[in-house]
Prior knowledge:
Helix content is 34%, strand content 31%. By secondary structure, the protein is of the alpha+beta class. Helix 1 packs antiparallel against helix 2 (50-69).
Amino acid sequence: MQNDILFTEKQRFTQWWIWLVLLGIGGLFLYAIYYQVIGGEPFGDKPMSDNGLLLTFGFTLLFILLFVSFRLDTLIKIDGIYVRFFPFQLKYRFYAWDTIAKAYIYHSQPIAEFGGWGMRFSMSGKGRALTVSGEMGLQLEFTNGSALLIGTQKPKEIERVLAKLGRTGESR
């Protein structure tokens, strides 16, 4: 990677409702463990074994910790665009400018176009998407006909960098 970073952005899932669901499930398991394992009373009509309850809570906790680690990192440099969706992509994926036919800011409809946020593939031919929140993204259309939408919370900044590099496409 060249050292001239023109744009950088690190994003995490910040939707309150996602965290409410995750923490609610974790809290429910903690309560069940307290009630059943510590208190000695069965939790629910058909209680799980103590070991099963502890194991299920362990997996739930691992899932929550995995979700906490999700991060979308985007770098724009003179030689191209670097992106990774951690922890699924440990190394940055590099997209050189000569492989990009168009780069522009796109206002997407994540649920309708990609089925939500995260690492997504469109069933309607819109390509792939890496998003964590919001509706704005850097749309890349490649010379081979494929496409990638990289979510952003800084669309104006990206537009300025693309203009500086002479790489602007039309905004949609």
